[in-house]
Design brief:
This protein is an alpha+beta fold. Helix content is 28%, strand content 36%. It has three helices and nine strands; from the N terminus they run E-H-E-E-E-E-E-E-H-H-E-E. A hairpin with a 5-residue loop joins strand 3 (34-35) and strand 4. Helix 1 packs across helix 3 (83-102). The longest helix is centred in the last third of the chain and has 20 residues, at 83-102. The radius of gyration is 15 Å and the shape is globular.
Length: 123
């Protein structure tokens, strides 16, 4: 029985933003298949792994040129608390930073008390 699930609210357009978010969370890109419970594997276009964690997070080709973020989230959460939400939030932040930096904006980030991230753009 597969335990892989995708984060339905996260439609990722930028591999680079996903990889930047993964790095912030202590994950590194690896070559190979997405690893999950009981040795199950799945193909993914991008796979990231955290040292000591036997479960991976990956990007799987979705619809309309986007990627779905997939993992055995129960296993990943044992090594990275609230991983799906953190990946979603940080990927969004990194995507905004990359997009606006290309347009000449300086992007400052500040984590709020409620855990949200405030982005300030200046030119």
């Amino acid at each position: 029985m597969s335990h892989f699930t995708k984060v339905s609210k996260a439609k990722i357009k930028s591999k680079a933003a996903f990889l930047a978010a993964a790095k912030e969370l202590g994950f590194l890109e690896v070559k190979g298949k997405l690893r999950g419970y009981n040795g199950d594997t799945r193909d993914a276009e991008v796979v990231v792994r955290k040292s000591g964690c036997p479960y991976d997070v990956g990007l799987v080709k979705g619809s309309e040129g986007t990627y779905d973020m997939e993992a055995d989230w129960w296993g990943v959460n044992q090594h990275c608390t609230d991983a799906a939400n953190q990946f979603t939030q940080l990927t969004t932040k990194c995507s905004i930073q990359q997009t606006y930096a290309k347009q000449g904006f300086m992007v400052q980030t500040a984590e709020q008390k409620d855990g949200s991230i405030k982005l300030t753009l200046t030119k």
